[in-house]
Amino acid sequence: MQIDQLGHFEEQVLTMVAILGDEAYGNAIVESFQDQLGKSVNLSSVHVTLYRLEDKGLVKSRMGGATNARGGRRKRIFTISNAGLAALQLLKSSREQLWKLLPQLKFSI
User: Fold this and answer.
1) pLDDT for 107 beyond 80
2) Spatial CB neighbours of 80, under 8 Å, sequence gap ≥ 6
3) What is the rounded distance in angstroms from the CA atom of residue 56 to the CA atom of residue 86?
4) What angle do CA 34, 67, 81 make, to 5 degrees?
5) What are the CA-CA distances from residue 13 to residues 54, 68, 102, 103 (Å)?
6) Residues 9-37: pLDDT tens digits?
7) How many CB atoms lie within 10 A of CB 57?
8) Are 29 and 12 in contact (CB under 8 A)?
9) Of 30, 59, 67, 81, which cross-links 53 as Cys (Cβ 3.0–4.6 Å)?
10) Neighbours of 94 (CB within 10 A)
11) Which residues pair with 80 in a beta bridge?
C-alpha cells in the first residue's frame, strides 16, 4: 500500500486502533479523539473509516463478547495488522524526513 492512499482521518483512526490495542472499537476511538486530541468526531465516520481500513488490509476485526451493559449486544473489536503497522511506520518516517528539511522558524508569541 502506498501512503498517499491513506487520508489524514484514516491515519488518525489507524493510529488510535494501534494505541487502544484490544480496546479499539467505535465508541472507544471516538472517546480517544476527544481525550487525546480534544477533537469531536462522529461515530458513523469512525465506523466507515474502520471498514475502509479493513478493506485496505490495515486493520482486522472480530466480534467481542456480549455484555449486559450493551443490552446483550456484541461490539466489533479492531486490531492493527502488520500492513497497518508498516503503513504507520512509513508515514512517521516520511513526516520526520520532511520536518528535518524545514528551516528553523522563529515563532513569536
Assistant:
1) no
2) 14, 17, 18, 24, 58, 59, 88
3) 13
4) 60
5) 12, 27, 27, 30
6) 999 999 999 999 999 999 999 999 999 99
7) 13
8) no
9) 59
10) 12
11) 59
Residue 6 corresponds to which amino acid? L
DSSP 29-88: HHHHIIIII-----HHHHHHHHHHHHHTTSEEEEE----GGGTT---EEEEE-HHHHHHH
Report the interhelical angle of 82-101 vs 8-20 (nearest 10°).
120
Cell numbers describing residue 72? 446483550
**pLDDT tens for each residue of 64-80:** 876 666 666 778 999 99
Taking a C-beta distance cutoff of 8 angstroms, is the pair 108, 86 a contact?
no
Domains and CATH numbers, the chain: 3-101 (1.10.10.10)
